Amino acid sequence: MKRTGFRRPDPGVFKKQLDRNTQTLVRMRAIKPKRKRVTIAEGSKYLAACRGEPCYLNVTCPWTDWADPTVVDCHSNQSKHGKAAGLKAKHWFTVPGCAKCHEWLDRSDGLWEEKCAAFDDALARWEPQRARKMGLKLLEAE
Q: What residue spans define the domains of the chain?
């Protein structure tokens, strides 16, 4: 077997492969759509709208028109609103609720149907108020 000396390979071969791989990568990146992530600022405006409002759930507390200091934003527990294992529902699906009603919604032994009905009723009453407060347009039912 005859030995040959070491010599550098032709740089043109590698450059052609590199150009082809770069073009493929560029094309693959163009195909993948970038998913827009919800920023903290976009979600916090819905949460801030709940502050200073009366309780809309009204399950364990009487209906009041004054702002309870324990009112917080209560997220939906329904999968149709984006709730999943380890995920909260979208911020759009929040209603103001006092501490007692929030506890009932999240941790009590109440019937699931009761909880869903109470939340859906509260959301239906809260959406027009929130839209007015935030200057949003309500989505028309089609």
A: 40-82+92-133
